[in-house]
Design a protein that fits this description.
Layout lengths: L13 H12 L7 E5 L3 H14 L2 E6 L18
Parallel strand pairs: 1-2
């Protein structure tokens, strides 16, 4: 995976995380992307309907494990 890994950001700050990752990749804010997240499924599902339009996402996928790819990754909270 490429990109920086950061810990300690606020868990409810998905919009800023999506925008930060978009900026790291040099993608236009007008381009809609899918957001893949893992973590507390209930919390993610509760915020996904708000996160998608605010961060200009085409959708939010909640998974148990992130796929192996070289996509940028943002880690929020404890890791390990």
């Amino acid at each position: 995976m490429r990109g920086r890994r950061r810990a300690g950001a606020a868990e409810g700050d998905g919009q800023c995380l999506a925008r930060a990752l978009r900026g790291e990749m040099g993608l236009s804010p007008a381009q809609k992307l899918r957001f893949v997240a893992t973590g507390d499924r209930d919390v993610l599902a509760r915020f996904a309907p708000y996160l998608a339009p605010l961060a200009k996402l085409s959708g939010v996928d909640i998974v148990t494990e992130l796929p192996a790819s070289d996509a940028p990754v943002e880690i929020v909270g404890e890791f390990g």
